[in-house]
Every structure is written in C-alpha cells, then in structure tokens.
Amino acid sequence: MLKKLFLLSLVAAAGMLIAGCQEKAQPDDRLKEYVDLWNDKKFEEMYDTYLSSSAKETYKKEDVVKRTNDIYDDLAVKDLKVKFKKPKEEKEYDKEKEAEFPVTISMNTLAGEVSYEETVTLKQQEKDDEENWFVEWDPSFILPDMEEGDKVGIESLPAKRGEIYDRNENPLAINGEAFQIGIVPGEFNESDLKKLSSLLEMSPEAIQKELDQSWVKPEYFVPIKKIPITERPLALDIIELPGLYSKRVDARQYPYGEATAHITGYLGKINAEKLEKLKDKGYTAQSLLGISGAEEVYEDKLRGQSGQRIYLTKVNGEETPVAEQEVKDGENISLTLDAEMQKKLYDQMKDEVGTAAAVDPKTGEALALVSVPSYDPNEFALGMAGDKYDKIYNDPDKPLRNRFYQTYSPGSAMKAITASVGLKSGKLDPNKTFDIKGKRWQKDESWGGYQVVRVFANDSVVDLESGLKYSDNIYFARVGLEMGAETFIKGLKDFGFGEEIPMSYPIQKSQISNDGKISKEIQLADSAFGQGEVLMSVVHLASAYGGIINDGTMMKPVILKGEEQGVWKKDLLTPEQSQLMRTDLRKVVSEGIAGKAQVPGKEIAGKTGTAEIKSEQGTKGKENGWFVSYDQKNPEFILAMMLEGVEDRGGSTHTVQVAQKFYSNY
C-alpha cells in the first residue's frame, strides 16, 4: 500500500513539474498567427478566433469581415502584405497590461500602391477556461487613418483621349462636343412622338424604349440621342417641342466623315466580350474604346490612362486622401495621309464600290486609303439607333467593309509583276516575240477544253511592250510557262507574297495560291496574268509598282507618321530593267488600252486589269476593274484603284476613267 502511494506521489509531482515547465502564451506568437491569416485574407477566422471580447462588442462581425471584403473588392486590392517582426529578445509580458507591436501594411489598389504602419494592440483574457492574448481590432487595419463611421470614396479621373491628325495637321479624329437631346417625361406630349421620331430619325418604338426604362421618373431628364454640334438648327427645332431639352456633352468628332471613315474607325461603347478580355487593363462597363480603324489599331497610344483617387469622408465631411493615380492623357498621333487628297479621291469614287491606295514610292508612306461605299463615323460615335444600324449592316454593298484591308484577284494588273520577275530571273527576254494568232490558245491537248483567252487579236507577233500595251493574256501565260513555277514562285516571294505586310495598320497578306504552291500548268499560266488563285491587296499592289518604278527597291508601307521608314524588298529589278518597265507602262497609256487615262500636262503611266470572278470558263460573272498608275512627270505617288462590278460598264476602262477624273482635278 505504501508502495502504491509512493508511486502516485511521483506521478503527481511529475505532472506538476511538466505544468510548471509549459511556456505561457506570448502575444508576439499570437500576433504572428493573426498576421499569417491577414495575409491570406481569412478575415472571418481572424474575427472568430483572435479578436478580443471588447473588440467584438464594439464591432460586429459584419462590420469587420463583410466590410473589409467589400472595400477590398471595390478597390481591386491585390498583393496584400502585412509584415510583423518578432522581437529578437524574449520578453516577459505583464498579463495585466496590453502588448503593442508595429506592423507594416501594403497593398496594390486601382489607384496605386498603399503602404503604411499601424500599431496592433493585444490584451490577455480568459476564454474557454484558458488564458490567451487577443487583438484589439481597429478600422485602420482596413485603410490608413480609417475610423468608425468613415465612408470610402472612389473618384475616377478620366484621361483625355489622344487625337488623330494627317501629315499636314488636319484633324481626322478630335475631342469635341455634341448636343445630347433628352426628354423630361412629365412635360412631354405623346402626340409629338411621331414628329420627334422624324426629326431624330429614330423609330417611335426606339424612343419609347428609352422612356420605359425602370429608373425613369416624370421629372428626370432621359437621354434619347446625341446629334452633331454642327446640327444646331436641328437641335433648336427639337427643343421647341414641350418636354424636349438639349445640353452639350463631350463627343468624338470626325471632321472628314465618310471620306476617312475606314481609316479612322470610330469610338464606341465596350461590349461584354471585349470587357472580359480587357478588364485587367482598367476598362469598365462604361468605357469607350476604338471599334475599328486607327481608333482600334492605335488604342493603346490614344487611350491614355485614367486616374483614380481613393479617399475617406470623415463624419464631419472632411476628406482624407488614401491613394491617387495620376491621369495620363492619351498620345496624339499623326498619320502619313494627306486628308485633302483623300477627300478628293473619295469624292471621285463615292458612288462606286471599290477601293484605292496612293503610296509614295520613295518613302512607302500611304497618302490615301479609300474604301467605298462608306459610312459616317460621327453617327456611330454618337450612338446609332438599332434600325438605322441594321439598314447599314444589311446594305448589299457592305459600307462597313474595309476594302483596302482585303485581298482580291489582281487580274492583268499582275502582269507588270510577272514581267519584273521574268526580267530579273533572266528568263524573260523583252525583245523575244511569240507568234500568236487569234484570241484563244492552249499549250497542247493535255489542257483538254481549257484555253487562254485574250481581248485583242490585232498583234500576231507579240513582245513584252506589246504584251503590256494590249494586256495580252496569251503572251503572259506563255511567259509564265517558260519561266516555270519554281522561278515564278520565288519571284513573287521576292515581292512579298505570303508575308505579313510590314505596316502597323493591318492589311491582309497576299497569296500565290491557296496552298502557296503551283502544281499544274494551267494554274501557272492563269497566275502569270493575274487569275488563278493569286490575291493581292490594293496597298501591296501600289507598293509593288513602287518597287518596279523605283529602280527595283520596294519600300515598307507606312501609315503612322514618325515610324521608321525602310526598304521592304530590294534588287527586284536593275535600274535598266526598271527604266524599261517605266517606258512600257507609259506606252500602255500613250499608245495602248489605257488611252482614256491621258491628262493634259501629266504623263500618266500604268497598267489596267480585269479580274473575272466566275465559276467556270465560258460563263459570264462579276468583274473587278483595276488601274495602277502614276504621273511620270511627277511620280510622287502610285495610285492603285479597284472598282467592283464593272462588267457592264466597260470593264477596267471604267476604272481608268474614274482615275483620270481624279488626276484632272488633283
């Protein structure tokens, strides 16, 4: 019995010894645990486990957890970092007193970085029959200097969008004003709805839809439509109606309207799909961005960076700044375009369907890029009614289509390139003649029923000069066959076929064929005179002719002023071969089929082309007419023009006549 009592005494003594050796909870260890949770944004666990009873009495869970999460979401807080350095030396803390420790809090917000120091106070209290240290929570743990009752404010400071100018500082896209027309429903007479519909060119249903929005009240101003600031007489007519008002608002303006629409594009509201892609770049559901053209291509330059300000509004109404990101206005850009030249070219082409590009052969600068029919970018920027947009979108002539971006079959405009490839390769002797009789030809019976057809049969002995002057398909088909597919393909690649067009404004790349190969003789023959599967953009075609007349040096096409100019392709021809081509291209106009391009005082040279779009030989289909030209007396630009649907208007001769009128008036 004594032995058992002795053993029990030893166990009890050992238990007391162990209890005596256990370390007491320390506030710095406790704070480290709290800070770890803080960095992980585990605010609920922080509140439940670590807040003192007094803190919980003062601040309800919703005041701490939900509010912190909501504020951090609104401020787009990222990279939250709370740092606490434990004291190097151990210290005995008085449980009757509070323990205080400095912490550093930093975070990235939508208004930039926020970094500050705070003091965290812990005090000891008993919980669940155990003593521990608990945090005295404070609103300043959310944001610096934050106190109970403070409201968090966010102010957006919009950046001024950069403007777009031409080479002569003529405005293409600028920040201006418009009239915002609106209705105060309580004052509006519904009998005027039909008249208002006519004045605004909006359907009555579209107007009524705006008035039926859930937020509308009788005394509110309900925006209906923006109209250009130049339409002041219209605005005055509208506000004569009871309940109609107008006010001036900021608006993007496009002074050259339809003439430059496909170059400038327009500014519009961001849609849900683009917002999802761009939300990390600071775009919101209210953002405007470039929808097409230069507004879209150079969005990053033009947009700038809006500023943001985060502040606290105190109970007494005073504001205390938290963070501010400065506004960075967008960059103004200048294009190489000559807006007045662009307008004259557009005015000459506006009743057509087609495209044109004027490119300086010495610098590669694009001086004019026209796509017709066009649209008014001002209407899009101000907000177009759905029914009017549908009418434009469904127009069979596709005014929204940017035709100078696209590629087309070049037809006989290709022949100058084929000739250049042959001359440079040494496989085309310009003096060699082919004996060609009649309008149809095939190499042999292996071609079956397929024949190459030429327009004129006046020459039976055809050399390069004659082949170009009279656009002889048979001559160029035979040149292509003698050259061979390998040489022809290599030569076209030397001219940039199959490559991305080295221009900051995107243009579709040209192709030799759908798969980049030419595997059959008929395809080679067709490709040599611009049919087959050869496709080119009007920009590339103008650049290529620039290389032909510029002693074999083709410059990179440039549209953004200040971009580095440079050679795209060189040694396409020798200077002597270039001179030969210049002579022959002039004769196409002075002696050949483009005689209607003659302009008094100018020496127009160039090459016509008719691209036939049809399902099979022997049928009649749509024709696109080409004319690539320049003035040999003053070769400041190559003008490549393509007009669609010329089959009943004289073919490419119609395009020649439109170009001639431009030269006459320029």
UniProtKB/TrEMBL annotation:
Pfam families: MecA_N (PF05223), PBP_dimer (PF03717), Transpeptidase (PF00905). Its main location: membrane. The keyword Signal applies. Residues 354-661 form the Penicillin-binding protein transpeptidase domain. InterPro entries: Beta-lactam/transpept, Beta-lactam/transpept-like, MecA_N, NTF2-like_dom_sf, PBP_dimer, PBP_dimer_sf, PCN-bd_Tpept. It comes from the Bacteria. Keywords: Membrane, Signal. Residues 27-150 form the NTF2-like N-terminal transpeptidase domain. Residues 1-19 form the signal peptide. It is found in: Membrane. It catalyses: Preferential cleavage: (Ac)2-L-Lys-D-Ala-|-D-Ala. Also transpeptidation of peptidyl-alanyl moieties that are N-acyl substituents of D-alanine. Its EC number is 3.4.16.4. Pathway: Cell wall biogenesis; peptidoglycan biosynthesis. The keyword Membrane applies. Residues 157-320 form the Penicillin-binding protein dimerisation domain. Belongs to the transpeptidase family. This is serine-type D-Ala-D-Ala carboxypeptidase. It comes from Rossellomorea oryzaecorticis. The lineage of its organism: Bacteria, Bacillati, Bacillota, Bacilli, Bacillales.
